[in-house]
Structure formats: structure tokens, C-alpha cells
Amino acid sequence: MAFQEKRTAPAAAFGSALGLVLVAQLLFAVAAVAQDGQAQDRDAEAASGAELFQLCAQCHGEDGGGNKLYLAPAIAGLDEWYVEMQLNEFRNGYRGLHFDDIGGMRMRPMAMTLRSETELKNVAAYVAQMPKTSPAKTLEGDVDNGKQLYVLCGACHGQQAEGMEAQKAPALTHLDDWYLVEQLMKFKLGIRGTRPGDPYGVLMGPNSPMALTLKTDQSVRDVVAYILTLRAADHAAAK
Amino acid sequence: MIEQYLPALSTYAGDIDGVITLIAVLTGFWYVLCNIVFFGFIFRYRAKSGASEYITGEEKELKRWVTIPHLLVLVCDLFIIYGAVRVWVDVKQTLPEQPYATVRVVGQQWAWSFVHPGADGKLDTADDIKTVDDLHIVKDKPYIYELVARDVLHNFSVPVFRLKQDAIPGRVIKGWFTATDTGVYDIQCAEICGIGHGVMGARIHITTEEQHAAWIAENTPANLATAPAAPPERKPLAATALAAR
After folding, report:
1. Could you state, in order of their start, the residue ranges of all structural domains in chain B?
2. Which of B109, B110, B242 sits opposite A88 (nearest CB)?
3. How far is CA B241 from the centre of its chain?
4. Residue A16 — pLDDT band, cuts 50, 70, 90?
5. Interface contact B221, partner A, CB < 8 A
6. Number of domains making up chain A
7. Partner A, chain B 29-58, Cβ-Cβ below 8 Å
8. Range of the domain at A148
9. Residue A74 belongs to domain with CATH number
10. Which of A10, A106, A195 has the CB atom closest to B42's CB atom?
């Protein structure tokens, strides 16, 4: 009997190889069918905000506190409507499609990985409920001068920089100072807010009241320095 | 053969396919032959009753099972080296003497951006057209590309051209291509460059000279102030996402 088994070894090897090939083909076929099904049920099977945030956390940090090295600002606790709006801005090419928008070009493909409106809303809701962080101060500015300059900004962003959804103007107090400066400069230089069809970016574009008010780089730093002083007031209000 | 699965749309795509096919056929031949011999020997020298003969493999008639195929494989190597070097020199070591234009290709985490010469046909002038995600070129015209990276290693890959070239921070790497047909095709990054590597895609738009001239006229910066270009076409989400608010 043992002798018979040994004699059939080559045939068994061929049989095993053939079997492996057939099993592999079957697995591929099953995977293809499953993938097709997934495409149809994307909304039904949308990932949760916490799951989706794992990708965001790679740059923005587990606590959403941001990382300047990755050009990723603090996002924890941003208003849900604002996160949603900005993700749509990236996805629709209003942000992250300018040749000089280095940070935006990093973010745009990340926003494109969201597979549905449901997932977009899920991750926006998750970011919004995260506890706000207080990014460290990295620049100096003339707070008094910034306060005077901010009067105009307050018309949309609120006098305490708390943000106004009706104006599509986000809260500013818990953003990084370097990020605020960078974005103001991008708006002024037309790197952001100039894509045709962008309904909100244009409000901050190169010809906006903001750009006409913040004429110098120093005035940009001054107004950002003032905005950071409003963080304490925001904390007090939260309590 | 390969173009049945992926269009071959550069003048050298066929040559590269030829080298790939040559290597596949030669190595495939030896793979099949080795397996036939291997399993043949397993069958022929399968376990039998009685004492088995111990084979050292030192006898001449046994050694030739190794030496003859070895020499034949080396001969095959010569064919592969000749074919590969010939294509390498043409694709990687030679630039067209009279290019139609030079475009700059910029890789960064995680997007491709491009600088096209404007109507003057020269780079680094006021009418340059800068784009992100979209490279526009003319069919049947030799182009030189200047490839740079803003941050880390990337690889400029245009599958339909059979073109892959590393982009290295701090270096300007030149290469060339001539497209042989019109259409819109993929550009991808073929060098792991971070978490967004897999979604670092772009498109190459190959058009006729007339279409390209119209595109230049429409997108020249001086003209954009009065006649802005249309928003990008790729909108995976409902385009009304903002308007619906």
C-alpha cells in the first residue's frame, strides 16, 4: 500500500498544483463579485467617522491637534458644517488644485478617498465632536494693531472669532497660527479662493475686503496674533 | 500582444513591449522546460522497491544536464542584453534634437503638477500654463519633460507610454516621449511616496495641434483674468453638494 502511495506522488503534485490554481481562480472570482456588490452598497456600508478618521490621523494626529511638519492644521472641534464644506471644496477641486497650494495638494487626494456623501458626513461629525486642542503659539504679532484690523474680519467670523455658519465663516480660535497666516497669504496671492465656481472662497480672495485690509505680511501676523488671544474667551464661553 | 490589454501610445512603447515579450518568452521557455525535466526526473527516479542508487552528479554525462542549459541561458541573456540596451539608449539616454516643446513635471505628496509652455513655446516665461492633475500634449510631436520632485521620491509613470521615471528631490531629470494617438489616459506615481501614494493620480490629455492651440488660448494666464477656465471635470461627489446648501 505504501509503495502504491509513493508511485502516485508525481501525479499528486500535479493534482495539487492544478487544485491551487483552480482555488486561486475561484477566490479571484468571489472577490470580484464581492467588490461589485460593495460598489452598490456603499452608502449602506459607509465606514464610521472613527474608522475614517484613522486616515486623517496620519497627518492631523490622533487628537486632531495638527502637525506643522505635514502641513496639517489642528482640526479637532471644528464646526461640522465647515469640515463638510471644506471636504467638498477639496473634492470639487476648489482647493488643492492650484500649482502653489502644497498643503492643499496633499489634502485633496485624501478627501477623494471618501466614497460617499454619507462617509463625508460621518467623518465631519466625528471631527466636530473631538475636544478642541490649543496649538502652541509659533509667531509674534502686534495684538493691538491686530485687534483694530480684526474688526472687519469679525463681521463674518464673529467678534470673538466664533464663526458664523450663515456667512460660511469658520471659527478661528483653535486653529494654528502658522496655518492662519498661510491661508491668509494663499487667499491674498490667489492660491486659494480663485477657482471659478467656488462660491465661498471668493469672499476671501485677492480682491476681497480682507486682502485690501491686510496689506502687509506684518498686518497678517498681527491679526492672527489677536485671534489667538480670543482662544481664552472661547474656553470661558465653553465652560 | 501587451497592447491588447493596455494601449501602446508612444513611439517607443512597442520597443519596450518587445523587450518585455522577449524576456517573457525566453524565461517562459526555460521555466516550462525546467519543470518538464524536473517532474520527469521525479517520475523516472521515483521510489522503487530495493536499494536506491545514490547519484553524486559528478559524472560528465550528469553534469551536462547543468552545463549545457547554463550555456544556452547565457546565450539567451545576450539577446536580452542586446535588446534591452538598445531600447534603454533610445528611451533613456537620447533626447530628441528638435523637440516640439518642453514640459515640466512636478511630483509632490500627493499630486502631479505641470508647467506647459504658452503660445511662445518656451518654459519659464509669463505665458506658462500651470496645472495640477492634467498634462496637455500634442499627438505625434516629440516632447522633452523635465521631471522634478518637491519633497520625496516619486515616479512619473504613464502606462500607455510604457514610461516610468523616478523623480528625485534636488535633481532635474530629462526624458522624452512622442504620443501616437489622441485621448485621455492615466498618469500615476510608481514609487511609494507616503500614505497618499495610491491616490496620486493624474491625466494626460493628448490632442491634435489645433485642439492644443485652442487649449493654450483658453488657459493662458493673461486670458484667464477675463475668461476663466471651467472648473475641473472630475467630480466624484454630486456637483451640487455645495449648491444644495
Report:
1. 9-46+55-92, 101-224
2. B242
3. 36
4. low
5. no
6. 2
7. 39, 42-43, 46-47, 49
8. 134-239
9. 1.10.760.10
10. A10
- Please tell me whether the peptide bond between B110 and the residue prior to it is cis, using omega within 30 degrees of 0: yes
Residue A169 falls inside a structural domain: yes
Q: What is the per-residue pLDDT for A237?
A: 65
Cα A12 to Cα A6: distance, rounded to the nearest angstrom = 10
Q: What are phi and psi of B134, to 5 degrees?
A: -135, 120
Chain A, nearest residue to B106 by Cα:
A99
- Closest to B108 (Cβ–Cβ): which among A55, A88, A105? A105
Is the separation of the CB atoms in A50 and A130 below 8 Å? no
The CATH code of domain B101-224 reads 2.60.40.420
Mean pLDDT of chain B: 88
- Here the ipTM equals 0.73
Domain boundary among A113, A133, A153: A133
Q: Decide if A7 touches B, using CB distance below 8 A.
A: yes
pLDDT tier at A235, thresholds 50, 70, 90? low
| A217 occurs within a structural domain | yes
Q: In angstroms, how far is the first alpha carbon of chain A from the final one?
A: 84
